[in-house]
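W.,

You were right to be curious about this one. When I first looked at the sequence I had no strong expectations either way, so I just let the prediction run and decided to look at it fresh. Below is the sequence, 347 residues in total, followed by the output.
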Amino acid sequence: MTAVAAGRLGAAARPTRAVGTWLAVIAALVALMVLVGGYTRLTDSGLSITEWKPVTGAIPPLSHEAWQAEMEKYRQIPEYQLINKGMSLEAFQRIYLIEYTHRLLGRLIGVAFALPFIWFLIRGAIDRALLPRLIVLFLLGGLQGAVGWWMVASGLVERTDVSQYRLTAHLGLAVLILIGLIWTARGVIVPQTVPAAAVLRGPARLTLALIFLQILLGGLVAGLDAGMAYNTWPLMDGALVPQGLFAAAPAWLNLFENALTVQFNHRLMAIVVAAAALVTWWRARRLPPSPARRLAGWLLAGVALQFALGIWTLLAQVPLALGLAHQAGALAVITVATALAHASRRA
């Protein structure tokens, strides 16, 4: 760093609104990447690229021979041999380009974060108190790429899909990054607090934590394809509390590997999240008009819509459009929950 830049990055420097806007754009890109990842999962495209090349992998196959070479690598993994044997080159290209888009978007997010970060740093637009958080967010983004490959690698040997544990870790880290970006962006754009809104601090943070847990449970559902079975509601396998929830031994394994139990937990947590959002809204309605009060109303409405959309998706056996809509709804809900938790923080 030059002496000029070091001087600008002093105690007098303050984040500008442009910094907040930049972080909000990065948050939107991260949300888009999660959706593309969901599309990749729902179309079974994620194992089409069998190597991790962070730099050279940015260039797709550009000739017929290059495409043939990529498909030959795909032919070596269990997914091709047991599920897609005989797949045409054209069909392979379709799923390859979906996964390629997902990985390319990750690279673009890295560039979209790094270059403006350096620019704002040189211009003295980043406060010293904000700098460590931005560095952590950037490092988490790099870690997310490694976790993504770790997830894909689990499906290249012996399995025909990726590990539900690794998929959930990949999804959870993406959502944590999204929360961090939204929180930090609001801290720059809306630094003031409304003292009365602090009464929502506990309920808002609890609701945010519950929504995050529900998204993790959704990752397990996706990883086990648990939404493809037990497609009735409110009864599940003919009962409100189905038999076989703890059929596997040891009992704790059912929480992660029994599709019946995983889907049941996702259903149950949806009710818990709805109750938490309702309590938060009920407490917020006594506040004077404020961003926190409005956000509490939006959160309750979003959770209600997401609840209904989840039931619809289940009853329809997770068609592509509804599966993506349900994932988009989860991102919208956790965005509002994060904004509410930030708006109700103590001054």
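Here's what jumped out at me. DSSP finds twelve helices and no strands in the chain. And, maybe more interesting for your project: The chain has two domains: 8-191, 193-347.

Coffee later to discuss?

I.
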